[in-house]
Write a structure and sequence with these properties.
7 helices, 5 strands, 60% helix, five-stranded parallel β-sheet, single chain, alpha/beta, globular, Rossmann fold
């Protein structure tokens, strides 16, 4: 099975969180793991926030960033581009005015939907929006 991991499901693969074990299991079960360029950027933003909030030391954040970069370079993940088509679909989702979907999550959903993948997320709002919009999704708790 090919799976698309959003940032909320990817960070627990690198840092201990309540759902880290479940994330590790899903990563191990996947035939192919997809991310978007957006996920890459959000990953580093999440690390930066943890440093600012003093939840993570600078050296630890740098070590996690290095590990993630190595995985990207080793093609552990298949990276999807955020194209105009992705933006167009994301905007269509938002123009429905019937979900609490946020901008970047709309792009995650569009990347996932256009590639025909199942979204793996720890974000309850995103999971609910995915289901309402017909995007295959699994919420990790």
């Amino acid at each position: 099975m090919s799976l698309y991991f959003d940032t909320s499901a990817l960070v627990p693969a690198y840092l201990p969180e309540a759902c880290s074990e479940k994330v590790a299991i899903r990563l191990g079960e996947a035939d192919r793991i997809y991310l978007s360029r957006l996920t890459e950027m959000e990953f580093f933003s999440a690390l930066s926030k943890k440093v600012r909030m003093e939840e993570l030391g600078l050296e630890e954040a740098q070590a996690v960033a290095t590990a993630f970069d190595r995985h990207l370079q080793a093609h552990v993940y298949t990276t999807l581009r955020v194209t105009n088509e992705v933006f167009d679909l994301g905007m269509r989702y938002l123009k429905g005015f019937d979900t609490p979907l946020r901008t970047l999550d709309g792009l995650h959903l569009a990347c996932c939907a256009l590639a025909g993948l199942t979204l793996i997320t720890a974000d309850t709002i995103l999971a609910d929006c995915a289901k309402r919009l017909g995007v295959a999704c699994e919420k990790i708790d």
